């Protein structure tokens, strides 16, 4: 299986640069993975495809304003860092640009010295470990100095940082948003509850590795990044009860999918707890727990296209993407959505 098998042509003008004013007014492409049937809908029509007894699974992670701009203390040279993973109370794994001159021992100042970071280690893939020094609460300082870490394909300035958060975001720790959830409003979620659909929340802190391009020709040789997830006992019980009663597990986004598939045993029983996952889902994978998926449109040759191809079949996904391009759907983080069942 080659990485090039998951390539598709995407005109750059279809990459959504700004969120829609109304989250739920996005378009929704319905795909039946058994028959290949497709329908063009509005995201609000998601209620047509959910049923009483289903369980909708949300990833309640919250994106940190993880992009910081500073300068080297010795030369004043500009430095940009992106917080990727918290290692201790003061230390983070970070992406640093430019990296060549930021060697161990280098000190970077942010906000006129409000925050100071010292590089303590260079990791194998080139990321840096930075130990921060500050007075007060780190999260409050980050909130005042940091910017939302929008993906590189979004070039417009985000006017309202809350638009890169889901309306149910709670647990801080992500370097990127679980973007399939951006389409939901509180009103739509309440409408779904009123239908008799259970709603369960899991946490997976999204790392930038999600968007890292696959650089090997052989898909099976790709090594996935590690991301932390947590599922509480009440959530595990709710999902297990839904399955036992014959209801469907509907994941909102690939992050919710990867969380459940990481924490389920071979019998499809979900176990509570927290752990790191490097799960890589590509065609040939047997899904243990997910029955349906709400997802955005993903980058060509990405691990996320591979995941949806594993769920619906590569030919059906490529056909759906071809349809979405021809119908001028909006792509990627601020783009439109698919419902696959």
Characteristic key phrases:
18% helix, 2 domains, QueA-like, 341 residues, Thrombin, subunit H, alpha/beta, nine-stranded mixed beta sheet
Q: What topology does this entry show?
A:
Elements (H helix, E strand, L loop, with lengths): L26 E5 L6 E5 L12 E5 L1 E3 L3 E6 L5 E9 L4 E7 L9 E4 L4 E8 L5 E7 L3 H8 L25 E4 L11 H9 L3 E7 L22 E5 L1 H12 L4 E4 L1 H10 L9 E5 L14 E5 L6 H10 L1 H13 L10 E4 L1
Parallel strand pairs: 1-17, 3-12, 3-14, 4-11, 14-16
Antiparallel strand pairs: 1-2, 5-6, 5-8, 6-7, 7-10, 8-9, 9-10, 12-13, 13-15, 16-17
Helix pairs in contact: 5-6
Give a description of the structure.
- Helix content is 18%, strand content 27%.
- The longest helix is centred in the C-terminal third of the chain and has 13 residues, at 314-326.
- It folds into two domains: 3-63 and 160-340, 3-Layer(aba) Sandwich (QueA-like), CATH 3.40.1780; 67-145, QueA-like (Thrombin, subunit H, Beta Barrel), CATH 2.40.10.
- The strands form three sheets. Strands 2-1-17-16-14-3-12-13-15 form a nine-stranded mixed β-sheet. The protein has a six-stranded antiparallel beta barrel with strand order 5-6-7-10-9-8. Strands 4-11 form a two-stranded parallel sheet.
- It has 341 residues and is an alpha/beta fold.
- The mean pLDDT is 94.
- Strand 5 (67-72) and strand 6 (78-86) form a beta hairpin.
- It has six helices and 17 strands.
- The total count of strands amounts to 17
Described by the principal axes of the CA atoms, the overall outline is: globular
Q: Which CATH architecture of the largest domain? A: 3-Layer(aba) Sandwich
What's the SSE pattern?
A: EEEEEEEEEEHEHEEHEHEEHHE
Instruction: Tell me the structural class.
Output: alpha/beta
């Amino acid at each position: 299986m080659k990485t090039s098998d998951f390539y598709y042509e995407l005109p750059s003008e279809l990459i959504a640069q700004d969120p829609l004013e109304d989250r739920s007014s996005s378009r929704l492409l319905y795909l039946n993975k058994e028959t290949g049937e497709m329908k063009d809908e509005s995201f609000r029509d998601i209620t047509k495809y959910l049923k009483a007894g289903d369980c909708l699974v949300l990833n309640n992670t919250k994106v940190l304003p993880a992009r910081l701009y500073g300068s080297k203390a010795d030369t004043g040279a500009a430095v940009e860092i992106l917080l990727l993973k918290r290692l201790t109370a003061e230390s983070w794994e970070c992406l640093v640009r430019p990296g060549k001159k930021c060697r161990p021992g280098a000190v970077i100042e942010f906000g006129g010295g409000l925050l100071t970071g010292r590089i303590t280690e260079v990791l194998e893939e080139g990321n840096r470990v930075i130990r921060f020094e500050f007075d007060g609460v780190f999260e409050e300082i980050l909130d005042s100095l940091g910017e939302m870490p929008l993906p590189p394909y979004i070039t417009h300035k985000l006017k309202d940082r809350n638009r890169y958060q889901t309306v149910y975001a709670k647990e801080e720790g992500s370097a990127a948003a679980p973007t399939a959830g951006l389409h939901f409003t509180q009103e739509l979620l309440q409408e779904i509850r009123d239908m008799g659909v259970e709603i369960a929340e899991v946490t997976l802190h999204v790392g930038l590795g999600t968007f890292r391009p696959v650089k090997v020709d052989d898909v099976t040789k790709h090594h996935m990044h590690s991301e932390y997830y947590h599922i509480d006992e009440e959530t595990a019980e709710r999902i297990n009860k839904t399955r036992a009663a014959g209801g469907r597990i509907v994941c909102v986004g690939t992050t919710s999918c990867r969380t459940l598939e990481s924490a389920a045993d071979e019998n499809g029983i979900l176990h509570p707890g927290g752990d790191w996952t490097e799960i890589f889902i590509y065609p040939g994978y047997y899904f243990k727990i997910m029955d349906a998926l709400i997802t955005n449109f993903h980058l060509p040759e990405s691990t996320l296209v591979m995941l949806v191809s594993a769920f619906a079949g590569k030919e059906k996904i490529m056909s759906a993407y071809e349809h979405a391009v021809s119908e001028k759907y909006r792509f990627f983080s601020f783009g439109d959505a698919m419902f696959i069942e």
